[in-house]
Amino acid sequence: MSEGAAQTLMPQVAEWNLVNEDGIMKLRRSWTVKSFTKELEFFRVVAVLAESEGHHPDLHLVGWNNVTIEIWTHAVGGLTENDFILAAKIDKLDVHDLLRRKPSD
Asked: Which of 14, 18, 36, 54 has its CA 20 to 30 A from that of 84?
């Protein structure tokens, strides 16, 4: 998928960032969760979805309460439409009870 094609799909996953890492385009999004154990629960919920989709994103624990997910299709070395579909499905997961509220909430 070209960067232009990816840009046209970005509004469908507005919370995600399009990144180019060493020539590989990826979707990346980060969340702040309530605790380390909530971090692991968040990943469990995402893992169940990813397994059912047969599409496995890169999951990163960053510190004790930050999580980052990167989605890209390893087989093609970049993005496909399926990556955007998975990102949209992750956005719809009911994980609000795991997330830390922003100070403005």
From this structure: 36
CA distance linking residue 17 with residue 13, whole number of Å: 8
Residue 53 has pLDDT above 60, yes or no: yes
- pLDDT of 6 above 70: yes
d(CA 8, CA 14): 11
d(CA 85, CA 37): 27
- Chain position carrying tokens 């496909």: 80
65-103 pLDDT, tens digit per residue, is 899 999 999 999 999 999 999 999 999 999 989 998 754
Q: Which of 68, 85, 92 is nearest to 19 (CA)?
A: 68
Q: What is the CA radius of gyration of the chain?
A: 14
